[in-house]
UniProtKB/TrEMBL annotation:
Name recorded for this polypeptide: N-acetylglucosamine-6-phosphate deacetylase
Active site (UniProt): 275
Molecular function in Gene Ontology: metal ion binding; N-acetylglucosamine-6-phosphate deacetylase activity
Cofactor note: Binds 1 divalent metal cation per subunit.
Biological source species: Roseobacter cerasinus
The Amidohydrolase-related domain, residue ranges: 55-343
Length: 379
């Protein structure tokens, strides 16, 4: 064994699915990761002993609208994508789906082009595209501009199918009211992750969309039909399905901790998203979304009328809320930011796991603040 191999011991290690004690993270002479019991570490490797803490994979976030003071909706360019990715990397997120909020066909096309160019240029962290709209319900529009919301046309469908041919991962959030089952099926067959959200549809309609190929739900509980005693809505339909994943904004503002606890008890497949805006990784206190000003105060982002407009959130804060307020286990909570969201992707490429190549190992010494990049596995 070459002395260039290095092992990190002394901290608990989360491999993306399970939590390990008395193990070491081995970075071998070819730059690949492995996790082994301490007594099984190969002789001759350099051992570095850490002072407790936790090692995790880099986080995976499937809903990122902005960061570093910029919004993807404002400028669909490689430079903007790099700024956003760099801002989220500082808090430990090393794989994102940059998200275009409901906008024009021209900006949708520009977003696809920009993501394709960023991936070709090897911009770290950009792994695909999330189109949140514009085929949503005006009744559940949230902060989306209602003048831009529309049914999915044949041209819209072709554009997303083209994106699926050009990009490794494409997610689209739709409302069943503004898409057809046939459109959802075509998208799913092409490898697009179809996610239901911003919808006022009843449970039967949502189940039909799931049966057609939708397999995810965007920010569970928010901007959707709620669960009632006679009509379960999208919330109830989601919690009843074992074949559907759901994103969750765990800032303690968008969803009450008790509601989150109920959802976790009801189903597997829940992962965390930030729904982050330009404020992530920056000190700005306001920005614009489709020409409307968004204000930042007390960890809330709101339009002038008080409507929530994305989240002032980064993954470490979401993990803190999940473990301290919701009561999720450390093992489960970290999986919700690593292997579970990665499993939603068409081409996960090993993301969300501490094994093989091309991943990032983070080290949290005390709590969830200031993650240190411990090692990066060679590709």
């Amino acid at each position: 064994m070459s002395t260039t191999a290095r092992a990190y011991v002394g901290a608990r290690i989360h491999d993306g699915e399970q939590l390990h004690s008395a193990h070491g993270l081995l970075v071998d002479e070819e730059g690949a990761f492995d996790i082994l019991p301490e007594q099984a570490l190969p002789p001759g490797c350099v051992v570095e002993t850490l002072e407790g803490g936790l090692i995790t994979p880099g986080f995976v976030d499937l809903q990122v609208n902005g960061g570093g003071g910029v919004m993807f909706n404002d400028d669909q360019s490689v430079a903007t994508l790099k700024t956003i990715a760099d801002a989220h990397a500082r808090s430990g997120t090393y794989a994102i789906l940059p998200t275009l909020i409901t906008d024009t066909p021209d900006r949708t096309r520009a977003a696809i082009n920009a993501v394709e160019e960023a991936i070709a240029a090897d911009v770290q962290g950009i792994v695909g595209l999330h189109l949140e709209g514009p085929h949503l319900s005006v009744a559940r529009k949230g902060a989306h501009d209602p003048s831009l919301i529309r049914p999915m046309s044949d041209a819209d469908l072709r554009l997303v199918l083209e994106a699926a041919e050009r990009l490794p991962n494409v997610m689209i959030t739709v409302a069943p009211e503004n898409t057809t089952g046939a459109q959802i099926s075509k998208l799913a067959e092409a490898g697009v992750v179809v996610s239901l959200g911003h919808t006022d549809a009843d449970a039967a309609t949502c189940h039909a969309a799931f049966d057609a190929g939708a397999r995810c739900v965007t920010h569970l509980f928010n901007a959707m039909s709620q669960m009632g005693n006679r009509e379960p809505g999208l919330v109830g339909a989601t919690l009843a399905r074992d074949d559907v994943h759901a994103g969750l904004i765990a800032d303690g503002i968008h969803v009450h901790p008790t509601s989150m606890r109920v959802a976790l008890a009801a189903k597997a497949g829940i992962f965390l998203v930030t729904d982050a805006m330009a404020t992530a990784g920056s000190e700005i206190d306001r920005f614009h979304l489709n020409g409307r000003e968004v204000f930042r105060a007390e960890r809330r982002l709101t339009l002038a009328d008080g409507t929530l407009a994305g989240a002032d959130l980064e993954i470490p804060r979401a993990l803190e809320v999940m473990t301290e307020q919701v009561g999720d286990t450390l093992e489960a909570a970290v999986a919700r930011t690593t292997s579970i969201p990665a499993s939603v992707l068409r081409q996960p490429g090993g993301l969300g796991h501490l094994s093989g190549r091309g991943q990032t190992a983070l080290y949290f010494r005390n709590g969830w603040s200031s993650p240190q990049v411990l090692a990066r596995a060679a590709r």
